[in-house]
Please model this.
Amino acid sequence: MFVPVVIVLAAATLGFWLGDAATGSFAFSAAVAVLIIACPCALGLATPTALLVGTGRGAQLGILIKGPEVLESTRRIDTIVLDKTGTVTTGEMRLVDVIAADGVDRYEALRLVGALEDASEHPIAQAIATGARDEGGDLPGIEDFTSHAGLGVEGIVDGHALVAGRPALLADRGLALPRELDGARRDAQDHGQTAIAAGWDGQTRAVFVVADTPKPTSAEAIRRLRKLGLRTVLLTGDNEATARSVAAQVGIDEVIADVMPAEKADVIRRLQGEGRTVAMVGDGVNDAPALAQADLGLAIGTGTDVAIEASDLTLISGDLRAAADAIRLSRRTLSTIKANLFWAFAYNVTLIPVAALGFLNPLFAGAAMALSSVFVVTNSLRLRSFKAQRNNDDHGPPSVPATRPRPAAHQPVGVR
Model:
């Protein structure tokens, strides 16, 4: 549409000046000036140059932007939902206590449950298995291992049918939680720790307490996200007390806890139904549906391939501050595109009438056209100066880990 309109304007300019008894050279000069000044180079460069520089700068900072539609999403989001384990926290859980019921040998409980949990690769399960191996050496084999998403695991170890996970799973198997073990479990949760119950041979026999800590940069990242005008939400399958403890440590506004893996996408959908535009940050297989459902999905690059594939933005490092940097960079890139388009349009709207009136020599029209293109490219190159916000003792973008934790082959004992 643009080209036919310009040709018509140039022809009209030529006809007008010829009809006004102007010299042929003047009329042709004015018509050519209209054609030159209307060259849409600046318009054509406005968007791709900003995208190229913005995405390139993001890659240098460890932020991978998958497409231009992502930029519009970053402008509209008002709520950011964060997975807990591996995103806000380190995900490096460790076994801190084993509480055995009366008459139960602590070492035997650790040995049996450690063998059961060793069949799962979830951080909670591996913390228990590692603690058992560190204390007692090699673990026995397991038979008939079964995982129940978000609830726990079952299996046979040394002839004992073991169940470990949420109290609800044990109750479903007819294993009640004794008062002393229930008290230990609640006490651990009140201190922001995760407690897993385990039973065999018809009784609940022990509670295993594991602990995870927030990443050193999480509190600063949350402050930056809130400064961007975002409401922060912690989404986790862990219990309410543990989730609120972590949220309080890093400054998260809202907590949604006790969420089963399959329900995370439903939570995102519910928030969207409340009129919110939602971003989701996660790293695990269980987070992939929620990342896909969110208006903007941000995957931690140290997480699973499934989560990365489902996201719109990938943060190569595990530093949550990169989420704030990604949103800032995307918004800056979008603003640059809009500025480029504005000035490219303003240039045409202003100078086409000047050329049609005969006040612009074709030579100067060519120079002005080139200048507009140079302006658009130069304005886009300003994105190269974008800097990630880091502490004074940080130097450059976060490093990329040499190895990535293996994705879970089995469903976790606890939910993330």
The longest strand covers residues 203-211.
